[in-house]
Amino acid sequence: MRPPVEETEGYAQAVRDALADVPEPDRAELLEDLEDHLAEVSAESGESLTARLGTPEQYAAELRAAYGADAGRQGRRRSPQAIAVETIDRTEAWFRRRAGEEASVRAAWAFIQELRPVWWLLRAYFAAVLVWRILGDDWYRYPQNFLDWVVLVVFVVGSVGLGMWCRTRASGARRTAIVGNLLVIALILAIPQLTSDELLPLPGNNTMNGGGQPTAYAPPTNGDGSTGMTGIVNIQPFSKDGKPLKDVLLYDQDGRPVQTDYQSQGLELRRCDGTPPISNSYPLALQSPPEEVVDPNGNVVPSPSPSCAPASPSPNSSPSGSPSPSNSPSSSPSKSPSPSPTPSPSRTP
Amino acid sequence: MDTTQLLKGVLDLAVLAVLDRSDSYGYDVVRRLREAGLDDVGDASVYGTLRRLFKAGALNSYVVPSEEGPHRKYYGLNDTGRAQLTGSAKTWTAFATTMTHLLDDVDKGIGKR
């Protein structure tokens, strides 16, 4: 029986069309002797190609499936989600492989895995910081009110629960956890950027915070709004020929008195004659607050005062903040000082 | 049970076994598989399997001109293919033995009926 040529050609064309999405070298390979095959089949059996082989689409699907998954997969357009999932899986597998190669890396990885609960708490905290920012309009390190506490507790419980849940889950949940953790890490890295303006010790910021709760990254402030010098308790000025100077008034660039950190050390300024001491007259006369000395007779006497903070006249309150040194060199203050030792500097941004 | 499902797992092995007896071309492989009893084997499946095995390096191929019909692309096993056949055959034999043992009682049941 003569093979119906038109039928063979039509069938072959339909198969070709159905495999149009297969990349070229594979496609040519697959279709190489398609026509010969079809001719042979129809020459032998006499029944129609469709009756013998199924529809051209079925034939194409069978060919594609038998040839291997990659011919079909490369051809089919994949969704961005599928690509993302595959990328995550591949990256994770790569890290796991690399981690498995080196003994030290393996040990470190095992150690890091032990620290998982710490990470659960950390990510909960940082997520809470973000929500506090939304609720409270400022960056806070600690909960400010009951609502903040509720947020923190909810996040901690949720984060720990999620962590324990993911440990027992298959790849889908793990993938979500990886992405979520990366997001939190990005957030943690971003917080300093978001608050970068507060990283600068701008003079205005301290007064804006208004003595409320300390905000994240704000420099330490003293009660009067002047800038504190962390770690420095006292300053001993010397002249250039090595003589110790007394009663040197120090001001910062904004004309505010320079304050040392003596309060954090539990020290206080010694008062003389009941007058308020000048807190930026260096060296400061410092003492421990409750110090009382009991003499051998059992009488309580005040500890001997090494020197007094001089009650020098009020410093020149010009905004340039450079007091003339001749103003207060005298070690024996006779004049009563002005009661306001801190000139209010004119703030210019 | 649908034999096409079973065939999917062992079609490679079946094709390798056919080619181990003698080199062959696509349609001839289909015919020989059918003659051996695998009636359900699909033409396109065999063609696709041949292409894949060739691409994987298990087969060599050569074209044989023919006077009447079309030129035919013959396939034959190379060393890789023979090694694959040996390995797969062992796996299959062990698997088939296990299944046979598993189904021993069932066979008796069928015999009694």
Task: Give a short summary of the structure.
The complex is a heterodimer of chains A (349) and B (113). Chain A is mostly helical.
What can you tell me about this protein's structure?
The complex is a heterodimer of chains A (349) and B (113). Chain A is mainly alpha-helical. Chain A is 49% helix and 4% strand. Chain A contains 13 helices and six strands. Chain A has a two-stranded antiparallel ribbon with strand order 1-3. Residues 71-76, 199-219 and 311-345 of chain A have low confidence and may be disordered. Chain B has 113 residues and is an alpha+beta fold. In chain B, 66% of the residues lie in helices and 12% in strands. Chain B has helices at 3-21, 26-35, 43-55, 79-102, 104-112, and strands at residues 24-25, 59-64, 72-77. In chain B, strands 1-3-2 form a three-stranded antiparallel beta sheet. In chain B, strand 2 and strand 3 form a beta hairpin. In chain B, helix 1 crosses helix 4 (79-102) and helix 2 (26-35) crosses helix 3. The longest helix of chain B has 24 residues, at 79-102. Chain B is elongated and about 55 Å long. The two termini of chain B are 19 Å apart. The interface between A and B is medium-sized, with 24 and 19 residues.
